Structure formats: structure tokens, C-alpha cells
Please model this.
Amino acid sequence: DSGVTQTPKHLITATGQRVTLRCSPRSGDLSVYWYQQSLDQGLQFLIQYYNGEERAKGNILERFSAQQFPDLHSELNLSSLELGDSALYFCASSPLADPGYNEQFFGPGTRLTVL
Amino acid sequence: DQQVKQNSPSLSVQEGRISILNCDYTNSMFDYFLWYKKYPAEGPTFLISISSIKDKNEDGRFTVFLNKSAKHLSLHIVPSQPGDSAVYFCAASGGSQGNLIFGKGTKLSVKP
Model:
């Protein structure tokens, strides 16, 4: 158990809908990262928040947005969903702001299916 | 354009033998490399890392080798155990790319 929790575990929705994925980082970790893993793809970095502020942005679509709240939990909002958005979405956390030189701890993921 | 490539989608090894997982990268600015292991229905877990100032890092049965001139790294697992069966992801960071760039993974199957 990494200490990172994600809810829900599974989500099935229809095209055009909007969903919210939730992540609680490990106790004491200030950075939260969101990744997308589509079929047969590696983990694609979406966005990072550090202590409530956006720190880095990756290949995140404009239809997607995220935020980190004062209690450090984070939410990833996906809107106008398309079939291609079906994927595993992972949240990770780490103590530091610099994402590249320290280990990230991953949650179990949310499997999103768009029908 | 994939900056981190794991060209073998799968690898099958007999228990007790050596498993060698390979990873190539294209960005010469990468200076930190990590391996993650992922079991089904779980998130990736950190396994081992190596900085570009080293060419080898060892942790128990796991050793990572880095060849900077070839832009290649490999993970050796000796001896392999059935519990090592998982998907292994290589990741890299450095330079202007501060975040982790992951490969697509290699599925390792260790047969008893």
C-alpha cells in the first residue's frame, strides 16, 4: 500500500459527460501528479500540483482540468468525454516540488470507460 | 516521438535465471532514470533508480546498468522469482524535461 488513495476505482460513463476523479496523497506529501495510461501506452504525464499551486503541465487536454485543495487532496475533472478518453488514470505523490529527482508514490488508479 | 523506448513488450524467463529488461532513450539531457514495477490492478511501485554520474546501481537482486554513450539502460534481476512477474516501466527525467517520461513497459513472466 503506497498510502495514495484514489476514488472511484471504476467509472463508466457516456460520451459528452463530465467526471471527477479524486486523489488523496500520502501523509506529508505536498506534490500531486496525474498520469493517463491508455491501452498499450506508457504513463503520460498530465499535470502536477505542489502545495495548492500548479507546478508543471504535460500533455493535458483543454477539456481536462485539475486542482489541489488546502487539505492537499486533488481532483481531476474530465469534460466533454470522448471514447478515446477511456484509460487508467493514476495519481502519484511525493514530498518535494521537483518531480524528476525523487521517487513518486502511485495510487491504484481509476479505470474510466467512456461508452 | 517516444523519448523513452522499451522495445520488448514481453519477456519470459525460467525461475532462478537472470531477467534482463532493456530501455533506450533519445534525449541526451536525461540524467536520472528509474524503474517501476506494476502488478495488475495496482499502481506502479518504485523499484530502483540511477543517476547519470553512475553506471551501475545495485539493490539486492536488482541491478540497473546505464550506458550513457549508447543511451541505454538495463535492469537485471538475479535470480528471477515467480513473484517478479509484472510489468516493468522505465522512466527518465532531466534537462528541460523535469517530469518523468515513461516507456510503454515490458511484461515479465517468470515461470516456475
In short: The mean pLDDT of chain A is 93. The CA atoms of residues 46 and 61 of chain A lie 8 Å apart. The interface with chain B takes residues 2, 4, 33, 35, 40-45, 48, 56, 58, 90, 92, 98-101, 103-109 of chain A (CB under 8 Å). The longest strand of chain A covers residues 87-94.
